[in-house]
Amino acid sequence: MRTFIIKARKGTTRWELVRSQIGSRAHFEVIAHAVINAFFISNGFRDDVEVYIVLDSSEDFPRTIKLSSSAGLSLAGFHEAAVLDVIETALKDSQGLQKNTTMDVAPGVQISGFGLEKLVGSLLGDDSLENRPVYLLEPKGEDIRTMLLEDQPINPVFILSDHLALPKKSVKGFKRHGLKTISLGKKMLFAAQCVVLLNYELDRLLY
Predict the structure, then answer these.
(1) CB atoms within 10 A of CB 97
(2) Is the N or the C terminus of the chain less surrounded, counting Cβ atoms within 10 Å?
(3) What percent of the chain has pLDDT over 90?
(4) How buried is residue 68: exposed, middle or buried, by Cβ count under 10 Å (0-12/13-18/19+)?
(5) DSSP structure class, residue 115
(6) Which residues are CB-neighbours of 14 under 8 A, at least 6 positions away?
């Protein structure tokens, strides 16, 4: 299993506003494209991928949507609308979700009432996941090819942000917990582009 965590700092938790964020300052299209690039390959759908979308723009608390191909996720097509349908449905069907609780809303779709810090903490603290290496993408991190060859990671987790960088406080906190930082190069890329390259590097290494 390979896991991508994408923090959408301006991503709304109100289902009726999701589509209005496409092409806006929130740039929700970055999230949609990242999901597409994570799961789809030519004439196929990856069965070993999960994506966490952390939606930060909320009146109460963040929401984290988990999409998992191994748990039966189904997307209606290789386009933005298919991803938006799933996200809208997850938010709409989970109205009333309490903070720090989790709800299954469809096969392969789960939503939780917490944000990035608690999610990463759960990944690091859960005994069943303790052997999963967690990487934070950062331009000044170690070159990905060097890192992957050294680690030979099994079930890696990658933390990315949308068009806005992660808060410095969060980055410092993650580093204190020993998360490794990796780089895809000196140029800043969209999260959707990073997902493509990460999948490529893992495919190249493992297959």
Answers:
(1) 20
(2) C
(3) 65
(4) buried
(5) -
(6) 91
| Tokens 């895809």 -> residue | 184
Q: Give 149-183 pLDDT, tens digit per residue.
A: 788 888 899 999 887 778 788 777 777 777 889 99
User: Which two three-digit tokens encode residue 196?
Assistant: 């493509």
- For residues 5 and 54, the answer to whether their CB atoms sit within 8 Å is yes
Encoded tokens for 155: 């079930």
Secondary structure of residue 137 in the 3-state scheme: strand
Each residue's pLDDT tens digit, 91-112:
999 999 999 999 999 999 999 9
Whole-prediction pTM: 0.92
For 3-28, give the DSSP string. EEEEEEEEEES-GGGTGGGTTSTT-T
Cα–Cα nearest to 52, from 118, 99, 96: 118
Please count the residues of the chain.
207
Tokens 């349908």 identify what position? Answer: 85
pLDDT number for residue 131: 62
**Distance from chain centroid for Cα 171:** 16
Of 21, 88, 97, the residue nearest 61 (C-alpha): 97
Compute the Cα dihedral for 18, 105, 2, 156 and give only its sign. positive
Tokens of residue 26, six digits: 């929130």
> Of 184, 196, 200, 206, which is closest to residue 38 (Cα–Cα)?
196
